Every structure is written in structure tokens, then in C-alpha cells.
Amino acid sequence: MKPLALLGAHRQAASSMSLAYPERRFAFLSDQAIVDGWDLPNVEIRFSEPGPDSATATAQEAVTLCPRWLGAEALERWSISSVFQRLEANGFRHLLPVRSEAGAKGVWQVKGDRFHRPDAPEWGEARALSDIGDPHGCGLVFQPRLQVTAHHQVVGRRTARGTALGVMWVHAERFFRDDVIQAAQTVRNPFIEEGSLSALEVLGYEGFFTFNWIDTPQGALLSSFRPVPRAGLRTLREHGADLLLDPAGTAIAGAGGCFVAQPHYASYTRLEP
Amino acid sequence: MNLLVLSGVASAINYIQSLAGDPGVRLFISDCDPYCPGLYVPGVIPVPLPPARAGGAYRSALAEAIERHGIEALIPTSDYDVEAVIQWVEEGWRPPVKLFSPPFEAYGRLGDKGRLARHLSDKFPKNLPRSFGADSDPGSLPYPVVVKPSNMSGGKGVAICRTREDFLSARARLRQAYGQALLVQEYIPGGTYVLTMVYGHGGELVAAVGMRSRLTFFTWGGGGIAGEVVDEPGLAELAQAMVAESGGWRGPINLEFKRHESTERFMLMEANCRLNGYSYLTTMNGINLPRIVLETLLGWPTSQPAPPSEAERCNFLIGYRETPVDGFLA
Asked: What interface predicted TM-score (ipTM) does this complex get?
């Protein structure tokens, strides 16, 4: 069996995938010079830039982990602003509002529109956000910063045959160049499960995905969508949601799968174009 | 030997990786975050505590933990734990443990970015970025400048401002988030270097290792997430002189610099009164700094092997690997 290509493998989800499927081989492809995974026995790592031929050039099955590998059209179609506009137009409720600029009143959170905005999150009143630029080309959206009592992340895959997903209660997340899930556990949450499945249906989406839901005084709100999977894949598989299996029907991970992201030291070889 | 390491992140990982398998050490790790990965490493005995900045509540809980677990030696590894322990010792706290007691006045300089910059600027004018008051006339600043809280750690709240408008916006935002104590400095383009040292109870230098980042946590800089050991005699000499000028030290300490890409001069960014966050790199290269710290603390004989030759050295990268746990402490 040829290696499964992971496109944009500088993301935490890459090591998560390779640890989830030790029986499979993976090719980590990234345009970053320094990528984790050189010590993983089922991984080979290569330099690759985003483009239409990233996967086909390697003539192998591929999973996109970084939206920059999706292509310009898909990046726009599956941006937060575009997804939320379509959901709202189709009567989907429970959305955290998305704006192209911070409102005149209140405190606003800055987010990457097409892909995750690197580094620590920025938030503030409109006048205190005017220096926030977009050096990474991710596009910017602004959302009200609300009091959040819990954060859930839904990671899964939808195909023509069915959907496999897991709801993770995120206890800790850290924001560096990449956003890293530090601690989470799988839970069953019918409201979030049904909301996520409904959103996928409305969007007509097929592929890997991540939804973020926040519990607020206004109830649970969908705060973002990304057309790529996040980490937690090993835990999801061990609790009944195998995202590489493509089962018919709906498979939802059982509750109780807990994980932390252990800082792991290993040596690396610098990637060159 | 019952050793309590305060905080389970960053440089504590070095203590955990280097000492958790040592049959002579029962390693206790504390943290205020019940989801801190360091608390879940096999061989570690977790000790949940309130945040170090919780004051009396933290001190009481720490004292109780020391008694309950029979702790014999104490090593703080986060900036906030160092701050708390040094303050209490200054106030007369005498726990029944071995711990380093650096000069309080020296900590007052080394532990605050702004105070350190002001203290060293006359003696080392070519090795410090120019600093400005946070309320300086925005039109007078030599952009680009860096604005950051003077008493936070972990790269929080750092803004690089290229225009007057950027500065006004960033200053407002950072003050709202972190308070009034901001440091404004000229931006230094270049790579990040660290000189990590261990000083003995008498202030004598026991060990020193230079390191360089090849990739930082943040796109603008900050702590290293990948890098290598380096031989930079000029860096070592400069860092040791700065520590001496600041009043000397006891225990582990690291000074972080940027090497100016034009002048190649080492420019001091800050001092951190602990091992640096990625110091496990040195253990990977045969220099077990946590063991050297422990031996120095306890008065045991210690030796620092020379770094391997350049050809034999290994670099490092930190990956955040999904690791199952049976449950959480919370």
C-alpha cells in the first residue's frame, strides 16, 4: 500500500494521524523547513508547496491538513465568512456572528477567515484592533468576544456513504504558529452532534472537517468551520470513529477518550525546496 | 530524594525527561493547570497547586504539599513560581527544603525586562535595544518598535509596531489586556540565542551552555521550538558579565539575546531566572542540566561534560504528540 500523503503536515494533526494508524505509512508533505515527525517509524517527510499537483504529483491518496493546500477556489468557498453566510441564509441558527470588521461597540475577537491566523489570539475594542494586519494572507474576520464556559470541537469526515465524527470537550488549547490541542476528551453531546450533521447537510460538504462550538450565556454557538481535521484522531479511532474507514451511516465516537499533547523532543532534518 | 519541581511546562519538561527515570529521585511536579501535560508523564507524582500569583493561598498549599510529601528539595521552573518563592524567602519563609537563595536585589533587576534594561544600559550600551517609555510621544519613536508587558512570560502580548497608528492601537489593546506596565523597545532583526547557566550557592559559575533557535513558537519570535547547541564564547562572556553586573545569581538562569543581522552584535532581550524552555536539547547532547542543577543544589559533586563535537551534535524540535491518559486530575 502506498503511503497516505498528508498535505500541510506541519500541523499537529499530522503526528496525530500517524499515531492513530500505526499500521499505515504516511508521507508528510509541507512547505515549512522544520516539521515534526522524523522519529516516527511509519513516516517519511518531503518538501512540497501548495498547488493543484501536490497530491497528484505524488500519485497517492491524500488528506489535507492545512487549508492552504485546498486551492484558491476551495479556500474561498470554505472560509468562515462564506460558510457562515450560507448557513445563515439557510436558516441555521446558533451561529456566532461573523463580520468583516470589528463593530463600533463591544469587544471583538480576530480570526483567520480562510485558515487559522497564527500566533496568540488578538481581541479588543475596534479602536484597539486597527493595527491588526494580515501578513499571513489568511483573511480576517471579527466575532464578538463572549464569555465562554466550555469549548467543544467536532472533528470528522463526511463522504457520500456516511459520516464519522467525534465531539471533543477541549480543556486546553495553545496558540503558537499552529493552534495545538493541549488536553481534550471525547463526549456525547446530541445538540452539537445534530447541529454539526445538519450544518454539513446544508453546506453539502464532503471531506474532513472541524467545527468549533462555544458554550455561552446565549447557549451553544457555532464559532468556526475548517475544511480539515484537527488532532485527536488517535482518540477518535480508539473510541469508535475511524475517519479513514469511510463507513456507511453515521459513526460517532464514544465518550471518555482523554488525551494530552505531550511535548516530544526529537531531531529533524531541514526541508529544502 | 523527594524533589518538587514547580510548574509542569517548558523547562520543567527537561527536569521530567532527565530525572523521571532516576531511581534515586522521586519526582513531584506541581502546576495550577490540571490539564498540564507534565502532570501526566509516567513516573511523575502530580501535585496540583493554585496559581503562583494567588499569593497566600499558593504559599499555604505549597507548604502543605512540602510537608505531606516529605519534599527535600524545591526547584521553581516558571517565572511566576520563581517570583513567588524568591519573594517569600525575602519575607522570611524558611521551608524545610533545599532551595537556591539568589540575592533579592539581583532578582529585582533580572526578573523584570524594563528594570534590567535600565540597569544595564550604561554598562552595555551596544548590547541593549533602545528602550522608551510607554507614554512616549508616538511621533518620536524609531519604528519599528516592540511593545510588550514588562512582567509577563511566554511571549504574551508582544506587538511589533511599524507606524504611529500601529503603536497607538497596540498600546491601547495591550493595556486593556495586561495593564499599564509596558516596555517599548526598538525592534532587533535577527536570530534568537540563549545562554543558560547554573550558579552555585556561593555565586560561582558551575555550567554554561549556548543555544540557538532555528524556529520560534511564534511567527514574530519568542521562545524556541527548534534549534541547536552552539559555541559562542562572546555570548557566554557577555551573559556572565551581565549577570555579575546585576548582582550575581544562585541556581539556574538563562539570558535571551537576538543577534542583530547587520551588526552581528548580541542584543539582550530578557533574563529568565530558570533553565530555558527548550533546555532538554542539552540533555540530548549529553549535558544533563537538571542533574547539574540538582547536584549543585544538594552540594553533591558535579561535572559538566564538554558538548559533543559539531559533527556529533543533534538538533531538536518540539512536537505536540497526542498521548492517551486514563483521566484528568480536575
From this structure: 0.96
